[in-house]
Amino acid sequence: MRAIRESPPPSMSTSDEPTKHLLPGLPDEVAITCIAHVPRLFHPNLSLVSRSWHSLLRSNPFFTVRSQVNASQRLLLLNIVTTHISFSQWYITDPSSTRPANLRPLPPSPSPHTLCSASVSIGPTLYLLGGSLHGVAQNAVWVFDARVNRWSAGPTMATSRTCAAAAVVDGKIYVFGGCTKEEKPWAEVLEPGAGDWAAVVVTDPAPAVEWRARGKALVVDGLIYSGDGIQGLCFDPAREGGASWEVVQGWHKFCAKAAMDGLIYGFFGRWMKAYDVRGKKWRVVMGLECMPWVVLAEVGGGRLVGVRKVEERRRGKEAEIAVAVIEVEVDDRGVLRGKITRWADTPLALSRWSTSVPDFVTVEL
Predict the structure, then answer these.
(1) Which of 82, 102, 175, 213 is buried most deeply by CB count within 10 Å?
(2) Are 332 and 59 in contact (CB under 8 A)?
(3) In terms of domain of life, where is this protein from (predicted)?
């Protein structure tokens, strides 16, 4: 993977600063801690203070400090696809903001016409794995660093894949499926920054001849949950003797699933339910009857974010993206209860007939 060069956090004066310190009268270590508490929304303005501040706000140590002081923010990246021209564009939004929802476009990816890529994130980094370019499966990997707003190429996979499932377990990226049962390796693993992809030994390579994932793969207790629209499967990548599958009952009936606090949430029609991975049963989330969502993401603090495209008939062939923040808690009787705490439509006008929101990730900044 091509490394992104970044400047170290400043500890010395620059030509545009009259002082040696980031904040006059404070050691840089203390100043960095203070700056780390400033919400991400204001970072573009802070970067204009000086070259030292600009370098600091893009450095790894700064984001490490933000994490240490619990100031990191979960931002949502949405992939909006214009299907009739096969064009994929990623957007970023802050689901915790009290302002109206606002989708800001990322720089176009190096391969914007590649569709059906698998996606995962680690910290501030988005990884796009494979996909279909003009109907041909790809093995390319593209990496987006949200700190510097830049794409780069990652290590290519050994197998070309489209509609694969991917997830992160213990800092390692696992990808499987999206190819025929005979293609080797059927599953691969990558430890970012430590080398190339390696094959994962799988006792049963696939539950179908040509397995394609439908929806996001989720991780609970080190196990990866995914499905193909017919059945749900639990994938144990660390099982001794080789990774294996286990069928999850009822998975195919639910859409827009997300994992939070050991439960997997999904919508069944107008109702939300939660899958208890330990008890292996679905539980109803009371008090939350709403329209089905095409995206459901966990953003921390016991909150989920639901996203869907809303058709606006008054505008004819335009639509908007609706974003809702959902909180779920357990009452005294152990009953799950949910409520929508914030709702907003984005000002981004979309084509009513030719756009979809097929993918998303969250990044920490």
Answers:
(1) 175
(2) no
(3) Eukaryota
Question: What's the CA gap between 257 and 218, in Å, rounded?
Answer: 8
Measuring CA to CA, which residue among 149, 143, 113 is closest to residue 131? 113
DSSP class of residue 161 equals B
Q: How confident is the model at residue 257 (pLDDT cuts 50, 70, 90)?
A: confident
Please list, in sequence order, all residues whose beta carbon lies within 8 angstroms of the beta carbon of residue 297, skipping any fewer than 6 positions away: 76, 95, 258, 304, 305, 307, 360, 361, 362
341 contacts 325 by C-beta, under 8 angstroms: yes
Backbone conformation region of residue 54, classed left if phi is above 0, alpha if psi is from -120 to 50, else beta:
alpha
DSSP letter assigned to residue 48: T
264 within 8 A of 274, measured Cβ to Cβ: yes
* pLDDT reading at 6 higher than 50: no
Nearest residue to 362 (alpha-carbon basis) of 197, 120, 38? 120
Other beta carbons within 10 angstroms of residue 32's beta carbon come to 23
CB 265 within 8 A of CB 258: yes
* Predicted structure pTM score: 0.84
Closest CA to 143 of 4, 298, 296, 295: 4
Q: What's the start-to-end Cα distance of the chain, in Å?
A: 21
By DSSP bridging, strand 244-248 and strand 74-82 are unpaired
Nearest to 228 by CA among 244, 243, 211, 204: 211
Confidence band, pLDDT 50/70/90 cuts, at residue 159: very high
pLDDT band at 18 (very low <50, low <70, confident <90, very high): very low
The pLDDT of residue 156: 97
Q: How far is CA 228 from CA 29, 164, 233, 318, 336, in A?
A: 49, 10, 9, 30, 27
**Quick one: average pLDDT of 261-279?**
84
